[in-house]
Backbone:
């Protein structure tokens, strides 16, 4: 989920090339007659490289997507969270549980945002720089979350299953899912999808150098290849090309191209095709006929609507329609989103049980209090882990050898 990313991207400095080749100033010549020495031409200083303003509205969208997922995990599904509440969330939230069930689509919105941000941050970067930025962004908070959740679940007072020490150590690599180990974090499957997206984008776009033509070709090729993989039903192709998630990443990339040029017909075509395919996969995966055996009762129309709103929201950012949402607190919200996403599910179970069954708080107070608790923990992870380790790790990985 680079869900979870910086919203700034370097842009070429206008006039830098012209300045570097500027003519000598008046009164100075390259050669003088007589005994005067030859005077080299004066070179105007190169203008500093500018950065595009941070898209703070994108930070706000990330937080909204994370809160959607939290609503799903706390009140939109059964499973372990029922043990935390003491009963099914359907009974805790008789009306809202139906709405909370749509919160799982926050993941698809995360993937759209990730496509936008990864294309933006990878444009003009070397492969080394891109790799360093991704690893330093993902891993420090992830490592801390693995350690914290493992430690909490190992406590005698916490009645949840802890993974084996061997599997916990393997989880530190982010390779637990392909290697078949138990997951410490329930949400880490989305990180595995993000990592595969990063690899595809790095090899096909960043390594040869990002250009509009190359990015369009990447989107078109991935879209076609993913459709072929779906038709072939070949596990290896599914693993690499991720047919069910590809349209959301690709749609985000298309929206970044729209951000660069809103009149780009190819970019709009990428977005439209990705939305059409994406809503199909979302409905196929998340809709089922009404059945009392299932917790959720999502309608196909509701799923399409949520997916559409996700695309529209990112499009609004791409077109500058949300530029007025430039409040500094959104940057803080964006910084909290990733660590919150990592810890909110499993540690949320612990908090829900403590507040609801331990302290006797009603469910409608427990849910928001649990969210606030997880946001507070996310702030601590951001300040104590990410702010300290991310720059150091990025610097270490960026040094040429």
Residues:
């Amino acid at each position: 989920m680079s869900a979870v990313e910086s919203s700034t991207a370097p842009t070429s400095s206008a006039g830098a090339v012209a300045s570097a080749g500027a003519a000598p100033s008046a009164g100075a010549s390259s050669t003088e007659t007589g005994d005067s020495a030859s005077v080299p031409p004066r070179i105007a200083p190169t203008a500093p490289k500018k950065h595009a303003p941070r898209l703070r509205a994108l930070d706000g969208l990330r937080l909204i997507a994370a809160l959607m997922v939290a609503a799903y995990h706390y009140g939109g599904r059964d499973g372990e969270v029922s043990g935390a509440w003491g009963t099914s969330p359907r009974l805790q939230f008789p009306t809202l549980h139906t709405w909370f069930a749509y919160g799982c689509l926050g993941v698809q919105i995360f993937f759209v945002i990730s496509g936008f941000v990864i294309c933006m941050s990878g444009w003009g970067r070397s492969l080394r720089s891109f790799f360093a930025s991704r690893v330093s962004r993902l891993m420090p908070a992830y490592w801390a979350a693995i350690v914290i959740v493992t430690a909490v679940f190992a406590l005698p007072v916490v009645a949840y299953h802890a993974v084996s020490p061997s599997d916990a150590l393997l989880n530190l690599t982010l390779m637990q899912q392909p290697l078949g180990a138990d997951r410490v974090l329930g949400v880490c499957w989305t990180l595995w999808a993000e990592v595969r997206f990063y690899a595809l984008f790095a090899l096909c776009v960043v390594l040869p150098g990002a250009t509009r033509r190359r990015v369009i070709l990447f989107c078109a090729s991935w879209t076609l290849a993913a459709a072929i993989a779906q038709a072939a039903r070949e596990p290896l192709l599914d693993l690499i090309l991720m047919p069910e998630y590809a349209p959301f990443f690709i749609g985000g990339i298309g929206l970044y191209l729209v951000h660069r040029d809103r009149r780009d017909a190819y970019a709009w075509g990428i977005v439209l095709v990705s939305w059409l395919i994406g809503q199909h996969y979302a409905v196929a995966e998340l809709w089922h006929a009404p059945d009392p055996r299932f917790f959720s009762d999502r309608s196909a129309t509701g799923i399409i609507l949520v997916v559409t709103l996700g695309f529209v929201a990112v499009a609004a950012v791409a077109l500058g329609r949300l530029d007025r949402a430039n409040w500094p607190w959104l940057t803080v919200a964006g910084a909290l989103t990733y660590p919150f996403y990592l810890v909110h599910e499993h540690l949320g179970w612990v908090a829900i049980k403590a507040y609801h069954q331990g302290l006797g708080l009603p469910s409608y107070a427990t849910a928001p209090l649990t969210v606030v608790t997880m946001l507070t923990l996310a702030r601590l992870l951001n300040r104590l882990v990410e702010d300290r380790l991310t720059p150091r790790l990025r610097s270490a990985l960026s040094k040429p050898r």
